[in-house]
Queue: 4 jobs
Job 1
Amino acid sequence: MIELRDVTKTFAGKACVTALSGITLTIRDGELVAVMGPSGSGKSTLLNLMGGLDVPTTGSVIVAGKDLAKESEKNRSLFRRSTVSYIFQAYHLMPTLTASRNVALPLHLAGVFRREAEEMAAAALRSVGLAERAGHLPDELSGGERQRVAIARALVTGAPLLLADEPTGNLDSARGKEILDLLVSIHRERDVTIVMVTHDPDAASICERRIELRDGRVEGDTRG
């Protein structure tokens, strides 16, 4: 699913900052992987490269057979629409749209007809236990419910790769556990590849593999 070959990423400014330095790793189809490390270790940069939101300074980032480093911004956008879904710490829901319409939004952007998009959104909300909250706005939902809406939105397109950036970071421990249990269920039932950036050892513990970054390099890569 994902192969990084000698990837570096630098950011130019008043000083040149190296976020990633010589990263080489492979993530197989269907893996559930945690990426851990202290702030500034390169976790979010790595996730952005895997999702085609950015390109490496050097090296190759091959996702689902496509080398994203060689693709135009337009082609990477089309690639994300079909292949990658995201879950963010801050939910990123549209405040003026109901839960149902938030979930259907990526389908509308992909050109899916309204009726079909509504049916697919309803099914996605059912799958995360929020069928009865479909008509509610985000500010009428709890933090855990908002994150479930965000997960439903990520699932609705059927993308084979799910990237999660601190998905429990804004939740208390009880709601966080609910979200982690849901991610495990999704992984088992749908066999999607999930890569999750997290600072939380409890979140990382659900994953079958843990990759640890420090100073832009892979410091550890353990399974089990």
Job 2
Amino acid sequence: MIRSLRTTASHYLQENARLFVFTIVLFIVGVVFGAIVVNALADGQKADLFHYLKGFFALVNDNHLADSAYVTWHSIATNIKLLGLVWILGLSIIGLPVIVVLLFLKGFTIGFTVGFLVDNFSGKGLMFAILAVLPQNIVIVPALLVAGVAGIAFSLMLVRSRFTQNMPLYQKFLAYTLLFLALAVLLVFASFIEGYVSPLLMKMITPHL
């Protein structure tokens, strides 16, 4: 079974190699753009965000963070909604550009967050980003990139199906949906990391900020 899964995954990667390259580059561009925008913020905006972060760090130090279970379930709801949106968008031809925008915005959000932390706290900000932002996103980002590729590929397949007869749409749809269900499991796992692991890691660095 494991060998079969590896073969299927390898075939899927080869078949959609260009889309994977495209989505990865798109995500990286979003990260870079988000980091650049930090420098374009007005001084007042930077000051407001800085004070917000200092208040958040104070809450972390005083153990006044939201309950881990609440954070986990909120993260699960957010991630599954985003994954479900990509799934729905992949089922329509017009959803393709929206998927592209969502992947770019995900990269932008991470780039802006890390860029702002580094801009204001230098190396300690980078360490906070590694401990607080990286753990769950090690799982979330690849899962969303795979979802994005699957959504774009399915949308393009729907376009081709209009010009090709006897295309096995039901089988493709079933495989598409099963892939998203597997990705949903990964995102639930990432949400538990965000709720239970990341807060502990944050507490290690916030006293030094």
Job 3
Amino acid sequence: MIRKADYKDLDAVLEVIQDAKDLFKSKNSLQWQDKNGYPNRKTMEKDVADGALYVSVTDGKVTAVCSLGRFGEPTYNSIYEGQWLNDHPYYVIHRLAVKKEFYGRGLAKEILDHLEQISLSEGISDLRCDTAIENVPMNDLLLNRGYRKCGVIYLTRSDVLEKKRIAYHKTSH
């Protein structure tokens, strides 16, 4: 079952995020290794407050998380080495993570598909997202789900260790 997250889910959400951070670190990726712990409790609290955070729940346990940003992404105003597919209104996929005991079970695909359906039901046919170059599972997931690699964006947060990200766009037009 996939549903909107609530504040009571935050501890479980942060466990899922920590699993992803640990995985990235074990693969020598700088993604989510930021000095301030991003994504951290403050990040996830804002996602809940914005109604953006969704969780996949299996047997009463939070097993995957993802945010659906409905307010655009200022970082996406500049794209390099390519261009967005169009300039239509879009939602943003951020902070997709799966609990380690549930890797390989298709939960990332399920939550991504669910958020795409929510976007369409809200009249938004375009989704954008980004990920680190070395995040092969996410890059593969996005390509397999019909996202197109559009270029490169650079994160603007000052504490990010590696700012370069591959930018993706999916449109249902």
Job 4
Amino acid sequence: MLWKLAYLLQPETAHQLAIALLKRYPRFMFRLMTRPIDSHPALSQKLWGMDFANPIGLAAGFDKNAEIVPAMMQMGFGFIEVGTLTPRAQAGNDKPRLFRLSKDRAIINRLGFNNQGQQYAHRRLEMLYNQPRKSIIGVNIGKNKDTDDAIADYVLGWQQMADVADYITVNISSPNTAGLRELQQYKQLQRLLEALGNVRIKHQKKIPLLVKIAPDLGQEQIKDIVELSLTYQVNGLIISNTTIERFDSLKSYHVQQTGGLSGQPLFQKSTAVLAKFYRLTEGRIPLIGVGGVASAEQAYQKIRAGANLIQLYTALIYSGFRLVHEIHRQLPRLLAKDGYNHISQAIGRGA
């Protein structure tokens, strides 16, 4: 019922209302939208020295300002990634900038890293980071739209957020900030990873570094990213962000809007790119699969393509948080059907 009412509102308004309700009434919203789940031992993993109770994560973009992390922990996510956060608060791109493609179970957004800034999120995370908690917390960082030095923004982001993050993701793949995707090019990515490597050496706490990449990459670009990731000891890759491609199969009214496309139409493309990264890395770098996951079967396909973990976002808009429970309940059955006792046995088997 709540999801049906949300459809009467503009997409961004509906999202803001959901954040406000989850922030103010987390326990009530939890009871209203879902039910408790127990972690299945077949789904637990240890990555980067941390225990993930299950592989289901909340992708960056849903909780941009770290306002509803406690509520999301109750929903059953094994890990939660907040952001994208920029050093300074910024309004993002002009509205309207978020569009439902309901017939396609998809979204187009050109939000442009709208957020309250890293200091705002830091204060919120600081209150719960050292408390007992069920979920791993990741922080996704980006650059301000008007910055003159993108690399300096990422270094500053690392310095400002490292003490309240279990891992940090460097977002260089959003299509909605001019010039951002150029940081995926060899020379620029090399400079960025070298600068982050220097600041990581100085930091007392060893925080895993992840890089989120676009699905719109050629084979040579993929090879370059793998080479640099191995050279500069990147701890993980998130594959993938939204796409600028518009598939012929799209049927919805807003299909020609500019911005990044996410949801069901992205599933095949992002999973194919994921499998390419797995084959090239040979499993040496943990991968997070994101893009179009809307069922346990699709989550399992990501895992078989090489994902250690998966993330959800757009499907939650159409299916609600019950999807987390469905995946958690059905994944062990899918593993057992293929003769696997643990998720680690299935990773990359279909790549």
